[in-house]
């Protein structure tokens, strides 16, 4: 896997448009406007490979990036209220179709905004992933905007959520910032371990 050589492959807006899975995949999920595209660009050491928008809900497709023998999969942001009911259904069918498909999914990176408590949508996604026995890592984004005490509170809230959900599998939690780069190398190492089985 070579993160720095990432290339955009395709976008799928419907389940039947998903490409055949012929290599390991790592999926990124999170609420709309959680900073997913910015963090993906930081991880891949690129400025604008993943399209960044200030408009929530902009990513309405599953975007596939070839990262040298594996794929990084950018899922549509969930939880954005200002879209039609039919559009929400399309998103749900697309995301559920992806996870239910027979794919070599090594890891799902679930992004949550460190400045806020996990939303009901966040907890629903976390519960869904762990019940499906999907290897999961939680990344708390935008930590550069928090004071140290608030950062500790955010981590404590996640630990409480994991405990309350009675999740059996281990879930790695990383704090990160696409602005400062904090946590980005830690995420890269987890991706390498998931895909290649070894540290970089």
Layout of SSEs?
Elements: E1 7-12, E2 25-30, H1 36-43, E3 62-66, E4 71-74, H2 85-100, E5 105-113, H3 120-131, E6 136-141, H4 148-164, E7 172-175, H5 184-196
Parallel strand pairs: 2-4, 2-5, 5-6, 6-7
Antiparallel strand pairs: 1-3, 3-4
Structure description:
With 200 residues, the chain is an alpha/beta fold. It has helices at residues 36-43, 85-100, 120-131, 148-164, 184-196, and strands spanning 7-12, 25-30, 62-66, 71-74, 105-113, 136-141, 172-175. The radius of gyration is 16 Å and the shape is globular. The model is unreliable at 53-57 (pLDDT under 50).
In short:
The protein has 200 residues and is of the alpha/beta class. The protein has five helices and seven strands.
Here the CATH topology equals Rossmann fold
**Series of secondary-structure elements, N-terminal to C-terminal:** EEHEEHEHEHEH
CATH-assigned homologous superfamily: P-loop containing nucleotide triphosphate hydrolases
| First and last CA, distance | 10 Å
**Which CATH top level class fits?**
Alpha Beta
Q: Please give the count of helices.
A: 5
The tally of structural domains comes to 1
- Report the uncertain regions: 53-57
Q: Share of helix among residues? A: 25-40%
What's the β-strand tally? Answer: 7
Proper CATH architecture? 3-Layer(aba) Sandwich
Largest sheet: 7 strands, mixed
Indicate the mean pLDDT: 89
Describe the strand arrangement of the main beta sheet, using strand numbers. Answer: 1-3-4-2-5-6-7
**What is the alpha-carbon Rg in Å?**
16 Å
Strand content: 15-25%
User: Any idea what the shape is?
Assistant: globular
């Amino acid at each position: 896997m070579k993160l720095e050589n990432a290339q955009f492959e395709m976008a799928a807006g419907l389940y039947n448009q998903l490409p055949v899975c012929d290599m390991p995949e790592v999926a990124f999920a999170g609420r709309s406007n959680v900073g997913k595209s910015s963090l993906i660009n930081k991880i891949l050491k690129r400025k604008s490979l993943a399209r960044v928008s200030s408009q929530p809900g902009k990513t309405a497709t599953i975007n596939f990036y070839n990262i040298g023998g594996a794929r990084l999969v950018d899922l549509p942001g969930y939880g954005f209220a200002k879209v039609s009911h039919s559009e929400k259904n399309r998103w749900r069918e697309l995301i559920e179709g992806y996870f239910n498909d027979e794919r070599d999914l090594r890891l799902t990176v679930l992004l949550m905004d460190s400045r806020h408590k996990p939303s009901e949508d966040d907890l629903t996604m976390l519960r869904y992933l762990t019940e499906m026995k999907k290897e999961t890592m939680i990344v708390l984004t935008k930590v550069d905007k928090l004071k140290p005490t608030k950062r500790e509170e955010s981590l404590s809230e996640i630990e409480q959520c994991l405990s309350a959900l009675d999740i059996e599998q281990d879930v790695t939690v990383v704090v990160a910032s696409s602005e400062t780069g904090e946590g980005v190398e830690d995420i890269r190492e987890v991706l390498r371990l998931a895909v290649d089985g070894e540290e970089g």
